[in-house]
Amino acid sequence: MAESLSLSLQALPTVNKDKKSLEYLIERINEQKGSFRNVTEESLEEEIQISHNGEAETSDDDVLETVDDVEDLKSNREAITTAREEILKQVFQAHSESAQALDFVSLLLSKYSPNQSQTTLSTFIKQNLPLGSLGGEVTQAPQVSELEKQNAKLASIGWRMKSLNSTADSLLKSASRLEEEVEKETRYWSQALAVKEKGWSLSRLPREKHTLGVRYGFAEAYSDFRDRGLAALRREEDGSLSLDRGFRSIGDRTIRVRLLHQGKQIASSMTAASKPSIADSVEAEILNARNSIFDEELHHEIHREARNLVNQGVRCVGTSVLIPFKSNKQLEIDLVSTEDISRDNAAEDNIVSSRMVENATLVLRILLSYAHRQNHQSRSKKPPALRESKPPRPLYPILKPVVEYLQHRSQVRALQTFLAEVRATIGKAGLNLTVGKSESSYDIASISAVATKSEDSSKIEALVQQLTSPLHSTIAINIIDGSTVVNLDIQTTLSLPEGTTFNVVNKESPLQSPIYQLPRSTQYTTLVDVENCITHLTTLSTLHHLLSKFSDWRTCSTHGTSIMRNRSGTRDREIVSLALAKGQLSMTWQRSGSLNDQGLWTWEAEDLEGNGETRSIFDVLQRLQ
Amino acid sequence: MHELLLFGQVPSSRHDQVLNILAGVAAMQPVQVLEKHLVFKPNRLPASARPVQVGGAQDIQKSQVQALQAQNQGDLFYLRLVAEPSSTTLKGQGDGGLNAKVEGSDEIMLDVREANGGLVGDIQSTAPTEGDSQTWTLQYRDLPEVVQPGRRQITSRLMADIPITSGDPVQFMKALDYTHTATYLLAGHRFTHLSASILLHRLFLPAKPFQEIFNVSSKDISQARLLDPSGTYILQAAVRVQDGSKVETMTKGSLELLSLKETLKGVVELDMGDRLALDTRVR
């Protein structure tokens, strides 16, 4: 029976002595039975009888009834209490009103019969007010004539008219103001729509939720520049649209590339012709803002990169970056405000542009766009796992290709000049050397070949990759009637191995030629070395050529630059040596045994003084017979 | 490496809309994802093979032996091999799938492998051949950590992805004494938002046994049966953390995930996964 057992843990009720008092009992009976009037002997006996019969007999109805009774009783009691409170409130109100009236009358009378009125005055008044301080007098209402009445009526009508008129006026004024406002709003929104139709992305400003903004920045730019690429489109007084680029904007700027010769400007990418258009409409203003932010980022990135290219002779002076270009010349890249430009240009009209600086500007911009594209690609890849340290922001290759190209071009040009000189020199001596056209990886032909091969989506990337990958040029040289063919392969890169490398490959040489025994491919890293090599190859093949023409001569040593012959019947030996250097081919002839028997012939590429040999080398050698 | 995860559900009717929204949020075009997952179960050592412990607590053992024993008695986990075709293969096979259809039959479609070398049906020779341009990854996922009430509501678990560069991954798993138990395909789109990877995908059950669909191609998907017949998509946002013991990076990762959840509020409700549903232990 464990489950039926329930224990009450309530404390035993304590019997209060006061509860046995008559007062308490009467109150209890009142609570329980309502009133003594309802309690009769019979009813009490009946109740006792019911309780004796046991609680089992009490039906549900009874319980319900008693519950109702109790509720009735409760609500009755509540009604009585509220009614009592209401009565009390009214009584208090009446009391205070009458007391105030009494005070008033007493104070009024206190002037005439102070003693009597003192008895009825309240103590508060008595203490705070002097007696007789309130007086009364009978007054008469003034006489108002009919005319005055009429006048007053008219005045009131006039006032009313006036105020009605002013109300009408203000309503009209606000109507016209609203009309103007509507006009302004229409103008604003039509201009905003025009901007939208131009393809700019309009959005709400993140900080000002009720302002329209236009995004002209580049999504893939470095965060500083990306976040600045948002401007508010505000409404001017007259309703026209105006671009608000915030406090950080310092006007439009643009990249300027100038060619300097010993510090003096020769050419500039900013000429009067290329002057940026002055913003006359909001759309032009947005366009200028976009160009400006792009160039600002470009300048920032160029500066960042230039610090890493100091070993290539790139210098950062103030805000400009200087790239060495040929001797004594420099390319200067700086960021200038477009306003300054137009002022400067007005001052000096003789600024000329050149394709060189224009192309440099274009390439710098293309390379930044390409870097943006690469950013997008790497951002779309699966993200790397989070680490404690953020990977550093990589440098964009923007200056590097330009510096590479300039270096490469100057090296190729120098080599071509040298080859032309050699050709002219030995041409004078009746020998011929043909220099093929240089073929470069950055030539339009090779680039377009790459572009057509690749797929549509990566066509542009293939183009730019051609620019950023190491530059290649090849020159084929044909020495002496095609007997020897040498390929020159010139490669320039700023990544390791750094600098320009020349690869000399002997494509073809006669079997008996000493060149055939040389290593087929040799690599040089300086121009002087490769020049020496070509000089040597030319000399060797010239000698070989001479040997093939004059059969009585033979070589002194395999790789020597002299040939000799023994005069038939004598022990005399004749030696002919060739030397090719600095645009001059010289041939010395010496016969052993006799000091007087010697000769020197020179052929010069540019025979200014006219003391050079005019006969060909074959004729000279023929005469020695 | 640790993985922080949030999951959401997208009904198929809203798929395109959510895809658009995600492209906007991530500022990139969706990248198509098609993966084949092979689930492997380790074979438990028979009781007799386990070293019998004698001597109770007084038994002195070398630490190495102890570690080995602990490993034997510890939990065993499922492993997953994931094959992902390279993007060019995906494109090429999509075209090839149409061309290679045989006699309009429903269930037979020429696999690229079949067309090339006729190796289908040879269960043993699942080794990637020269023509296969798909990358295999061996994936391990731990049981998600218990999230204390009041902490950030994010599923966090230990993970390891081991790229398989060469060899036959299936043979390798066999050699490890693992049995192949299930195959499913995962198809969907991937986005990258900062360091979070967002994957909107569905799971498919292949129509063919797994050996025959060694190469994953879009035509497999066209045949496969949806795991969830209602076609609901799963949105999974994951941030990987190199070192789970570094509180700072873990906080950074979870904050990023929570901010993504805030961004996508009203689009998809992201929530942490059910810990026991993500249980990878072998029972």
Structure description:
The complex is a heterodimer of chains A (625) and B (283). In chain A, strands 10, 11, 12, 13, 14 and 15 form a six-stranded antiparallel beta sheet that branches. Chain A has a five-stranded antiparallel beta sheet with strand order 6-5-9-8-7. In chain A, helix 3 (60-109) packs antiparallel against helix 4 (114-120) and helix 12 (444-453) packs across helix 13. Chain A contains 16 helices and 20 strands. Chain A is of the alpha+beta class. Chain B has one domain (2-43, 74-263): Hypothetical Protein Pfu-838710-001 (Beta Barrel), CATH 2.40.320.10. Helices cover 25% and strands 29% of the residues of chain B. In chain B, strands 1-5-4-3-2-6-7-9 form an eight-stranded antiparallel beta barrel, surrounded by four helices. Chain B starts with a strand and ends in a 20-residue tail after the last helix. The interface between A and B is medium-sized, with 12 and 21 residues. Chain A: Residues 374-384 have a biased composition (Basic residues). Chain A: Component of the Mediator complex. Chain A: Belongs to the Mediator complex subunit 17 family. Chain A: Residues 374-393 are annotated as: Disordered.
Judging from the principal axes of the Cα atoms, what is the shape of chain A?
elongated
Helix content of chain B: 25-40%
CATH fold group of chain B:
Hypothetical Protein Pfu-838710-001
CATH top level label of chain B: Mainly Beta
